[in-house]
């Protein structure tokens, strides 16, 4: 279980397990119905590949999730925020921010940069990512299917790089 500042006391973060996959896929259906939501098999595949996946749980209910893919070898890792989502009725409670901070802490532990794609019109997500040190790199035209919506590619430097930039 992970404790994160700002998370409601009744909500806990814990590693995603196979028992959580069905609930996470159902949340995907709610949040991303028009954008090819991840089916259970996608979550199972990510778990099999050893990604860092967390769920936000209140009681026994999964409220949200986040997943960080980890690539490369030890000492030369790169990460990608593959997915993050919170049920609409629980948004605004700090759960998404807590999930993001938890996966970013893992990336920092690995001294790895983080990359992601986000819809260009998702203003709340863009603001949250910018507040956590992400910068826009470019646009992927037609990234989201089947809608054809564009996505910004964003990155956050590795912790060591950010510390060096702060010095200069």
Which band does the percent of strand residues land in? Answer: 25-35%
What is the 3D form? Answer: globular
Radius of gyration: 16 Å
Could you give a short account of the major beta sheet? 7 strands, mixed
Number of strands: 7
Q: Quickly count the domains.
A: 1
Put simply, the count of helices is 5
Adjacency order of strands in the biggest sheet: 1-2-3-4-5-7-6
Can you tell me about this structure?
With 168 residues, the protein is of the alpha+beta class. It has one domain (11-167): Gcn5-related N-acetyltransferase (GNAT) (Aminopeptidase), CATH 3.40.630. The protein has 5 helices and 7 strands; from the N terminus they run βααβββαβαββα. Strands 1-2-3-4-5-7-6 form a 7-stranded mixed β-sheet, sandwiched between helices. Strand 4 (78-86), helix 3 (95-109) and strand 5 (114-119) form a beta-alpha-beta unit.
In short:
With 168 residues, the chain is of the alpha+beta class. It has one domain (11-167): Gcn5-related N-acetyltransferase (GNAT) (Aminopeptidase, 3-Layer(aba) Sandwich).
């Amino acid at each position: 279980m992970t404790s994160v500042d700002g998370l409601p006391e009744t909500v806990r973060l814990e590693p995603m397990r196979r028992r959580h996959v069905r609930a996470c896929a159902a949340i995907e259906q709610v949040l991303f119905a028009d954008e090819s939501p991840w089916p259970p098999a996608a979550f199972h595949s990510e778990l099999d590949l050893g990604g860092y996946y967390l769920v936000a749980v209140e009681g026994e209910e999964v409220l949200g999730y986040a997943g960080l893919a980890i690539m490369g070898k030890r000492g030369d890792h790169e990460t990608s925020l593959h997915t993050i989502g919170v049920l609409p009725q629980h948004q605004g409670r700090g759960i998404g921010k807590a999930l993001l901070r938890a996966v970013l802490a893992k990336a920092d532990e690995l001294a790895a940069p983080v990359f992601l794609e986000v819809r260009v019109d998702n203003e709340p997500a863009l603001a949250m990512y910018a507040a956590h040190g992400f910068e826009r790199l470019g646009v992927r035209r037609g990234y989201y299917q089947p809608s054809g919506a564009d996505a910004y590619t964003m990155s956050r430097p590795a912790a060591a790089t950010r510390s060096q930039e702060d010095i200069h």
